[in-house]
Amino acid sequence: MCRWMAYTGSPVIANDLLFRPEHSIIVQSLRANLGHVTNGDGFGIGWYGTGADETPALYKSAHPAWNDENLREIASNIRTPLLFAHVRASTGTPIERSNCHPFRHGRWLWMHNGSLANFEVVKRDLRMAVDPALYPEIIGSTDTETLFYLALTFGLTEDPPTAVARAVGLVEDVGRRHGVEYPVHMTVATTDGETMWVFRYSSEKATSSLYYSNDAEQVRRLYPDLEVLDQLGPDTRFVVSEPLRDLPGAWTEVPEASWALVRGGENHIHPFQPSSP
User: Fold this and answer.
1) Which residues contact 231 (CB under 8 A, 6 or more apart)?
2) Per-residue pLDDT reduced to its tens digit, 70-97
3) What superfamily in CATH does domain 3-271 come from?
4) Beta bridge partners of residue 216, listed in sequence order
5) What is the torsion angle, in degrees rounded to the nearest 10, for the CA atoms of residue 238, residue 197, residue 9 and residue 114?
6) 29 near 3, Cβ under 8 Å?
7) Which H/E stretch holds residue 12?
8) What is the pLDDT of residues 142-165, one digit of tens each?
């Protein structure tokens, strides 16, 4: 399984998000505490500038994140209010840049930890369900990119929770027609650059871990001597596969089978239920 982190808040230098935490996403690429997997099959970051209508930028590589000197070079020169970062452990598709997360469509980013079970069996049926106008944009071979374009087909840019519910419902329908008992395992993050939506769901109800950071002021009161917290604005939120620092009271687990809207330092959690499209 992969590992990912998402940040939204006041603009910060990407280096502070990617490298500075004691259990940063770069550290997790080599040794994840909760996943017990080396995530060395490529990585990617996606970020937004401070312009109102700016398309997100991507930097992705098939190399391990811990061994990419260019990542540290550019991270020191990126200032962003919203960043996605992902380190990959392949579930069978090739280790190449086109298969690294995040994936982009216009202003939208998408990343995923998990898998669509027996993807090689259900792949044809799922991809044939993608809107023909969107299909030419698929450039990789992963289940994640397919799920993204299914969500776009079902209206991600207008209503993300409903679109993801329909996409997951389709995957479960197709999978079970092919004899797959548990077709979906996912933690997903997607954003339009202003709002984040995150999802935690699996068909077997045993989804990989996912956490969000608590209110920055609350965390500062718990740890007044931790200077790094002084840099976090009141609208700061992290959503992560596993905590970036061992700070009891700073993190809350996203419940199983739920989705959350994250914006302006707030997060609102709702139950998630797939629906057959």
Assistant:
1) 12, 16
2) 999 999 999 999 999 999 988 888 999 9
3) Aminohydrolase, N-terminal nucleophile (Ntn) domain (3.60.20.10)
4) none
5) 30
6) yes
7) strand 3-13
8) 999 999 999 999 999 999 999 999
